[in-house]
Amino acid sequence: MSDHISGPRALANAIADITDVFAFPSPDRANHLVLVMNTLPFAKVSNAFSEGLIYRFRLRPLTANAPGDRAPFSAGPEVGAEEFVFDCVFSPPSSAEGQPFEQEGTCTTPSGESVSFRVNDEDGGSGHGVRVFAGARWDPFILDAPAALKTVATGQLAFAELGAIYMDGKNVLGLVVEIDCSLLGGPTLVGVVAETLTRGTFNVRIERVGRPEVKNLMLGPKQFDPVNQDLEIRDLYNMEDAFHIQHGYEGAYRARLNANLAFWDGLDGRTDWPTNGEGHPLTELVLADYLVLDVTKPYQEKGSFLEIELAARQGRAHETCGGRAINDDVMDKFFTTLINAGNGPVISDGVDKSSRPASRSFPYLSPPNPNPPEKPEHH
């Protein structure tokens, strides 16, 4: 599920719905960082990218806060913070009768230089320290989503020893931007977030994603929230700047997270994250909703997700590159951290890998399924 269908607007505007975001050092090219944004749940091979959207990656240098701080890192001041933005836009698709569509894309680097590429071209386009691919890809989805939702609905862990990927074989529209780390000017730690925005003179953020499942499993459930039990909060959250939450809705997000994080923590009958009357200890970390990467460390296929943040919380040096690799079963880390804080057995949803793992070379994402399952009616 990760970030598929994460609110009413995403459901109504599926073309702008970000399903997943990944960020990791290239396993293929030293000193390069790979950024991946997947959009459009249940995409078909014949689907084009929207010419009405900006597909944006934002990266910010991070500074460590005091050891043990509930928000381990700072992304700089609200105004004037250093930031590196990679924007991709697309031409309207064109096709001759009976022929596959053709579509051109352009990626603009932080210094304003442009790189052109053609959609569904496996080689992508490159220049100015950037290589870009865009096209239909197999959805690298590692979660038994119905079991996760049943857990929320029943208050009982519903994972089986052998889970199943929901409607496996789905496709997405994948956008891969591989960048030379020298474009970032030398920071060690960076925060990464992906966004879709309206294109034109007035840009409205439709969706943004940092870590997986913040919206659907941490902000989505309403029944535990004592303050805003009837409020669908995810669209408001999607419009926020990931690096600086507006004060207007901060209280609503905190109330929802405090309640839902306590629900997850209680599923094993124990409290591993005592609140001490100050809200849930993970709420501030969740609200700092961006992937944290150490660009000086090598690619790691498994186990780097959340490692930097949790190390900072524990006052120890991190050991991995952090971020999120495509083949990493991050949902087991997600459930284990929330439910037992790593103090007990791994909480697994019974799915530990994609049926089409990513490769270790550009464009990383697996080719699309020519005959994907049909989108279910209720979506």
Structure notes:
The protein has one domain (8-340). It is built from 8 helices and 14 strands. It has helices at residues 8-12, 145-154, 214-219, 234-238, 247-265, 283-287, 307-314, 330-340; strands at 18-25, 32-39, 53-61, 63-64, 73-74, 84-90, 104-108, 114-118, 125-127, 130-138, 171-180, 189-198, 205-209, 291-294. Strand 4 and strand 5 form a beta hairpin.
Low-confidence parts:
none
- Structural class, by secondary structure, is alpha+beta
Fraction of helical residues:
10-25%
When the domains are counted, the total is 1
Helix-strand layout with pairing:
Blueprint: H1 8-12, E1 18-25, E2 32-39, E3 53-61, E4 63-64, E5 73-74, E6 84-90, E7 104-108, E8 114-118, E9 125-127, E10 130-138, H2 145-154, E11 171-180, E12 189-198, E13 205-209, H3 214-219, H4 234-238, H5 247-265, H6 283-287, E14 291-294, H7 307-314, H8 330-340
Antiparallel strand pairs: 1-2, 2-11, 3-6, 3-12, 4-5, 6-7, 7-8, 9-10, 10-11, 12-13, 12-14
What keyword list fits this structure?
five-stranded antiparallel β-sheet, 18% helix, seven-stranded antiparallel β-sheet, 379 residues, alpha+beta, single chain, globular
